[in-house]
Amino acid sequence: MNTIFSVNVYKEKLDIKNKPLINYLLKLKKDSKGRKISNPTGWQSFPIDVNQDIFLHLNKEIQKKFVKYMESIPLNNSFQISSVWGNINGYKDYNTAHIHPHSAISGIYYLKTPANCGRLCFYNPAEQGIGYLWGHCVKKFTTQNSVLWKIDIEEGDLILFPSWLKHSVDPNLNKKEDRISLAFNISLFTPV
User: How far is it, in rounded angstroms, from Cα 71 to Cα 75?
Assistant: First the structure.
């Protein structure tokens, strides 16, 4: 049997000191109302400059893991982190289903994930066909025959995935603590 058209989603725990990054994002939130893109509720920052000292260790770790991820696809061009933003989601805050246009790979690094803060959801690229034709005959749901696949997230998790893969984030059902993450896009490096 051959498996075709598979989608690689990378997940690995990083050893990063998250507290300074959390404090940085909380200060940004205090100073800015942020923006609304895929977050009807919750707070999302405007783009962040990852060349600041506070992000250097995280940036290096993402780049190392990204090389490993790219080898699994494989893509052979030069890429760079092109945009980064912070997300702070309180009680019932969520992100709607979306993709990240104008980039190749997207990622999320989870800084804080309290209990019941929601899961990361990925939508099968063949969701319409699967839902319509197989909707009532699936014996056991797998990554091949599911319309939706949810991934549990924990503090320190780095997730990398193709930017064209539709995804969302469940509502944070923790009434007391925020879910905090940094999201980013990786694009083809084009020298000036």
Answer: 7
